[in-house]
């Protein structure tokens, strides 16, 4: 009587199949992630094409100049954003050094992808009125910056008028250094490009540089 020989499992073949399967799953996951980013940017492009021209309809009583008020900006932009499945959120926040800030998120609901950041409110927020004014100022500028809208030349907030000359906080400088590191750019190269030094940069200049760095990093991730 012939006794059947028990076949031992081909562990090498099984390992190879498992490895190939994992590679396929990882590739598919990566493709899906990239596709979701591409979908978000395609919808954001549609938003920018449909955004209306914004007129400076309000007058600052202190500086007698015109600006786009939040009550005009929000209805004009949020309607288009919501049409293309975007949600815009802002929330008062606190930086590591204890200073006040505004965090913002542009969320693309179909994919879960988002564009987010934090904007410093400066140092002149020691009263509820000043803080509220600074938050309104930041809400306008954050939304216009993320959507690529042309910001008004004038400042609607007397408390924020000095921001262009206000020295950058240490926490914002550290955030800029982190952003430069993520871009693989050293400080010397950055300072040469800007024609200034980090120590002499204003809060407004640092905030703008951080926002530009985040935009570049997001664009790189979408193309990776």
Give a written overview of the molecule.
With 224 residues, the chain is an alpha+beta fold. The protein has two domains: 29-163, no CATH class; 167-224, no CATH class. The chain contains six helices and five strands, in the order H-E-E-H-E-E-E-H-H-H-H. Strand 4 (100-108) and strand 5 form a beta hairpin. It is globular, with a radius of gyration of 24 Å. The model is unreliable at 57-65 and 152-156 (pLDDT under 50).
Radius of gyration, Cα only, in angstroms? 24 Å
Strand and helix order: HEEHEEEHHHH
Spans of 5+ residues with little confidence (pLDDT < 50)? 57-65, 152-156
What is the domain total for the residues? 2
Mean pLDDT: 78
End-to-end CA span: 64 Å
Strand arrangement within the widest β-sheet reads: 3-4-5
- The backbone outline, from C-alpha atoms, is globular
Classify the beta-strand content into a percent band.
5-15%
Structural class: alpha+beta
Specify the helix fraction band. 40-55%
Largest sheet composition: 3 strands, antiparallel
Number of extended strands: 5
Short description:
The protein has 224 residues and is of the alpha+beta class. The protein has helices at residues 11-50, 70-83, 128-147, 170-182, 187-194, 203-223; strands at residues 58-59, 66-67, 86-94, 100-108, 114-120. Residues 57-65 and 152-156 have low confidence and may be disordered.
